[in-house]
């Protein structure tokens, strides 16, 4: 497999925050951008052939990363064994995803894949931005500190030495003033309520721009009612816990999952399933109007580059999760939301999965950072009663080791439009590998019923790492 290149772009490593000089930022940026030459291979590395070359088997095309395993970066041999089925009678060393027959009867949630219910909190949008998150964060600050320290440790394992620490502690806080209102003020409020350094809270919010791997679906039943659901998978390549056979960051995320009711004048504006301390939105619903989820889209010209361009002064793109938050808060119709999600310039490529409040209102918007590449819409006349997205363009085949799309579509086909419901969609999202080691939660939404349900998830062995 040849190493992918990065499209030509201006040398932003010569810039800095505030257009001044910051050797720390420039040095870290150069290291990161150079590492992006190998980042696509971190996902495609299992296809590199039979000669897996070192302990980090899934990073076999990036030998220099193999030494990072002891610090928690990437997959160790035990994780690779899970992928390839070593030592299991249920799987074979084929490099393909472990699958199972479509599940049924998993809803209401019970059993080994159900980790618990998710608590509700209210965020009052009439309060000052720095005050909105105080109650929630005061209850979750220990769990938030545990996760941020893990992310910080992983960042230092990827960039050895003190430069990344200096970037987090000294440079990232300077970015707060560059964020659109009210996001900078809210991040300050999270830092104040948690007692965590401002730069670390900023780092926590940045990570969601580049490490989210998900499955989302919008389906229409025979009566015209729409159902929108998703598995949120997070933590890819962020520290494999050999003892528990799971992703370290995913484990630490589950205690932070919350349902949030955003209110103004005592009335709900939108609801969301999110993570305490994270002020953007990945999953949400504006009752009676539309529902929205965001999935990461892998690209060489991807999230890391956009984030570092922002750090280094090129700020003409919108943070994905800030855009979805703004759309949920301010848009008043499905069409308005679709226009904003299609046309706003972004820091990172993405898939936006949008559902409305009437028959036929559902689509997957495929975005590059600069433009809309495709809008794939529900079309009952063509027999398309659902749209489903994982993390691959619909016109391209998914990687054999990460094929959640085909198992999900197989289960949707078996269910049929006649029988679609919260329960049957939850069954599909509970079927491996749609459910996998990265899955933190499942959310089910019905705009017309003003209903959002969310559940913590876990994937018992045998189970795919992603």
TrEMBL record:
- What is the protein's major site of localization? other
Kindly give the InterPro entries that the UniProt entry links to this protein: Acid_ceramidase_N, CBAH/NAAA_C
EC no. given is 3.5.1.23
Q: Which domain of life is it from?
A: Eukaryota
For the biological process aspect of GO, one term held by this record is: sphingolipid metabolic process
**Leader sequence segment:** none
Q: GO MF terms on file? A: N-acylsphingosine amidohydrolase activity
User: Which Pfam families does the record cross-reference, listed alphabetically?
Assistant: CBAH, NAAA-beta
User: Catalytic activity, per the record?
Assistant: an N-acylsphing-4-enine + H2O = sphing-4-enine + a fatty acid
Q: Which PANTHER family match?
A: ACID AMIDASE (PTHR28583), ACID CERAMIDASE (PTHR28583:SF1)
Q: What is this protein called?
A: Acid ceramidase
Tell me what gene encodes this. Answer: asah1
């Amino acid at each position: 497999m040849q190493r992918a290149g990065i499209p030509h772009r201006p040398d932003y490593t010569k810039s800095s925050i505030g257009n001044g000089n910051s050797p720390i930022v420039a040095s870290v940026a150069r290291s990161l951008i150079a590492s992006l030459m190998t980042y696509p291979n971190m996902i495609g590395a299992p296809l590199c052939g039979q000669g897996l070359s070192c302990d980090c088997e899934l990073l076999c095309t990036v030998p220099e990363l193999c030494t990072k395993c002891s610090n928690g970066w990437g997959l160790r041999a035990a994780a690779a064994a899970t992928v390839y089925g070593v030592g299991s009678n249920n799987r074979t060393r084929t490099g393909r995803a472990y699958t199972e027959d479509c599940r049924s009867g998993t809803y209401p949630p019970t059993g080994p894949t159900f980790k618990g219910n998710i608590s509700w909190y209210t965020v009052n949008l009439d309060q000052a931005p720095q005050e909105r998150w105080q109650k929630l964060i005061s209850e979750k600050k220990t769990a938030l500190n545990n996760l941020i320290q893990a992310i910080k440790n992983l960042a230092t394992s990827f960039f050895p030495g003190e430069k990344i620490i200096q970037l987090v502690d000294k440079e990232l806080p300077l970015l707060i003033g560059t964020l659109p209102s009210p996001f900078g003020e809210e991040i300050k409020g999270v830092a104040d309520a948690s007692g965590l350094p401002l730069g670390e809270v900023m780092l926590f919010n940045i990570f969601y721009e580049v490490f989210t791997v998900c499955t989302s679906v919008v389906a229409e039943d025979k009566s015209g009612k729409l159902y929108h659901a998703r598995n949120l998978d997070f933590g890819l390549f962020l520290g494999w816990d050999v003892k528990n056979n799971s992703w370290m960051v995913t484990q630490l995320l589950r205690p932070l999952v919350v349902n949030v009711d955003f209110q103004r004048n005592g009335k709900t504006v939108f609801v969301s399933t999110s993570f305490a301390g994270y002020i953007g939105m990945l999953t949400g619903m504006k009752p009676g109007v539309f529902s929205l989820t965001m999935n990461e889209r892998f690209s060489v010209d991807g999230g890391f580059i956009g984030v570092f361009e922002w750090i280094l002064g090129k700020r003409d793109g919108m943070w994905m999760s800030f855009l979805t938050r703004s759309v949920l808060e301010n848009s008043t119709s499905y069409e308005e939301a679709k226009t904003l999600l299609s046309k706003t310039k972004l820091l990172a490529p993405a898939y936006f999965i949008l559902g409305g409040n009437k028959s036929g209102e559902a689509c997957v918007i495929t975005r590059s950072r600069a433009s809309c590449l495709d809008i794939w819409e529900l079309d009952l006349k063509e027999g398309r009663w659902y749209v489903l997205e994982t993390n691959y363009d619909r016109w391209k085949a998914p990687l054999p080791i990460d094929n959640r799309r085909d198992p999900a579509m197989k289960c949707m086909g078996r269910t049929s439009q006649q029988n679609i419901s919260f329960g049957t969609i939850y069954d599909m999202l509970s079927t491996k590998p749609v459910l996998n080691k990265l899955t933190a939660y499942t959310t089910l939404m019905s705009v017309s019923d003003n209903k959002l349900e969310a559940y913590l998830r876990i994937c018992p062995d045998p189970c795919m790492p992603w």
